[in-house]
Design a protein that fits this description.
Radius of gyration: 37 Å
Distance between the termini: 52 Å
Strand content: 15-25%
Shape: rod-shaped
Structural class: alpha+beta
Number of domains: 2
């Protein structure tokens, strides 16, 4: 059982692919309980189909007839929907189908023991573990407890991986938004630089001309005109200061980026 849990631990820390880790774990479970077949089915989404993710067959004794199940299609799906285990000591028809099996292939599957255990998530059943034996047998209460404990541990692993995947997706989303903001910032810097290059020289010319007027270089000014020129010069200086303040952050940002 410890080796099976180790395989689950490898799946939890994503050091191995999920399919590879679960195949190793279900193979260990089959060996521990002397099963002829063991499988793990997982939902693609809570309301979707059950898909086979890991399969163990001992010497080809068990035929895999279905690798997907829709809602309420056979015992596997019913166990997933109900969240309750199903255990059969003797099975006279293929329990993976909603109708009894017929034909030469299905004859190889007759008279076997079968058990299905739900994989319980926090909100929904995540999937089903099936255990198949070619001989009639009864699972002991201890074996049932261990299989259910394995299903619980598997649920923790699956939810941990899905949580980590959501974090990775969110990280990529944030990185994409950050890149988009950087592009927008660069475009704004270009606009600010272009604006400064066009407006600043002309604004300096206006301020210089106003100083000439205020100094009476072009003729004596009366009191009212002098006050008006003073007001205009003040507004022009404020506009120049505002322009410098707008351009200063973009220069600082470019300088910091270049330093990095």
């Amino acid at each position: 059982m410890i080796s099976a849990l180790r395989s689950l631990a490898a799946a939890a820390n994503r050091s191995r692919s999920l399919k590879e880790a679960l195949h190793a774990a279900i193979s260990e479970i089959a060996d521990i309980f002397a099963l002829d077949g063991a499988r793990i089915f997982l939902f693609d989404d809570p309301a979707g189909e059950l898909n086979l993710i890991a399969n163990f067959e001992r010497n080809g004794a068990v035929v895999l007839l279905h690798d997907t199940f829709k809602a309420h299609e056979g015992i596997v799906s019913i166990v997933a929907q109900s969240g309750k285990r199903a255990i059969f000591d003797i099975v006279e028809y293929d329990p993976l189908l909603s109708q009894p099996s017929h034909g030469a292939v299905s004859q190889r599957c007759l008279s076997r023991s079968f058990a299905a255990f739900p994989i319980p998530g926090k909100e929904n059943t995540l999937g089903v573990i099936t255990c198949i034996g070619m001989a009639t047998r009864q699972l002991s209460p201890g074996a049932i407890d261990l299989l259910e404990a394995f299903a619980d541990q598997l649920a923790l692993v699956l939810e941990s991986r899905r949580f980590c995947q959501r974090l990775d997706d969110k990280k990529l989303e944030i990185q994409g938004q950050a890149a988009e903001l950087e592009r927008a910032s660069q475009a704004l810097d270009q606009v600010a630089a272009s604006l400064a290059g066009e407006v600043r020289p002309r604004l300096h010319d206006v301020i210089d001309y106003l100083e000439l007027l205020q100094n009476s270089s072009l003729g004596k000014l009366n009191h009212d005109l002098a006050d008006a020129l003073k007001t205009i010069a003040g507004k022009a200086s404020e506009l120049l200061e505002t322009l410098d303040n707008v351009c200063a952050p973009s220069k600082a940002g470019r300088s910091e980026s270049a330093h990095k």
